[in-house]
Amino acid sequence: MHRRARLDRYLKRGHRYVHGWVLPGAAKMVVAIAAVQRAQAVGGHIAEIGVHRGRLFILLYLLRRDGERALAIDLFSDQERNPEHSGHGDLDIFRANMARHADTDSLVVHEGDSTAIDGATVTRLLGGACRLFSIDGGHTPEITAHDLAVAEAALAPGGVIILDDVFNEMWPGVSEGLNRYFHARRGIVPFAIGGNKTFLCAPPFAARYIDALRPIAVKTAERDFLGARVLCCDFAPLSLAERVGRYAAWRAVKDIGPLKIARRAYHLARAAIG
């Protein structure tokens, strides 16, 4: 089956059969970023630290282009080295999922602790730098900061790092690790947040990725984060009030006498009931 057809099938329903925690909004953001990279001729390989059963890795793998390889880094059978249980990789299940939804022709597997490798190891295993590098491994501050250093060192020009769980209330160590990493000056900046992922790249490329992501989210806002301007993407459905508020006709009449009085009465009634 053609790679594009496999990608469409995986996005539509295939991902449901792979255990993991990738939100639909995150998948949309990754696909949009990959489209920018193709249009801008950003080249490189694929890598992920912490593949679990492959839910995001398969998507990244299906987005690769001819000549690109994909590296899966996970403890797999060595789960006693994962005391926080931030994931539970299984190499046999991962390979079976890859065979079902993609292939293994361009797959490289590194079974081991990510803290024992560096960016040079990644580029040696792949034969070059990475344009997409996902981090979803150990969720402690120390491991998060280390994995960010590995990813940045292995990043191709225009490449993007995808960091999981920065704003997940169950894993505060990831947020602390990201902040620790940025205590020193770095060659990357965050540029987008959404779908429980935080996206980072070199500053010259941030604006073009932001422009591509803005139209795909239900709601967006730009905020300052770690010294950079980032696009915050919300994929939750709009409420009725928010949907109505988007219509120019409503904005034109909502403050006219009778309507303004009716709106005020409605909000007072809601406050009294609530």
Could you characterize the architecture of this molecule?
With 274 residues, the protein is α/β, with parallel strands linked by helices. It folds into 2 domains: 3-234, Rossmann fold (3-Layer(aba) Sandwich), CATH 3.40.50; 240-273. It is built from 11 helices and 9 strands. α2 (24-39) crosses α8 (203-213). The longest helix is centred in the last third of the chain and has 17 residues, at 257-273. The protein is globular and about 70 Å long. The N and C termini lie far apart (55 Å). The mean pLDDT is 90.
% residues in beta strands: 15-25%
CATH 4th-level superfamily of the largest domain: Vaccinia Virus protein VP39
Please summarize the sheet with the most strands.
9 strands, mixed
- Sequence stretches where pLDDT stays below 50 over 5 or more residues: none
Domain count: 2
Q: Assembly type of the shown chains?
A: single chain
Secondary-structure-based class equals: alpha/beta
State the CATH topology of the largest domain. Rossmann fold
Strand order of the largest sheet: 3-2-1-4-5-7-6-9-8
Cα end-to-end separation: 55 Å
Number-wise, the strands total 9
Q: What is the 3D form?
A: globular
Characteristic key phrases:
single chain; 274 residues; alpha/beta; Rossmann fold; 2 domains; 11 helices; 42% helix
Q: Which helices and strands occur, and which strands form pairs?
A:
Elements: H1 3-12, H2 24-39, E1 45-49, H3 55-62, E2 70-74, H4 91-101, E3 107-111, H5 119-126, E4 130-135, H6 141-153, E5 155-164, H7 172-181, E6 189-194, E7 197-201, H8 203-213, E8 219-225, E9 228-234, H9 240-245, H10 248-253, H11 257-273
Parallel strand pairs: 1-2, 1-4, 2-3, 4-5, 6-9
Antiparallel strand pairs: 5-7, 6-7, 8-9
Helix pairs in contact: 2-8, 6-7
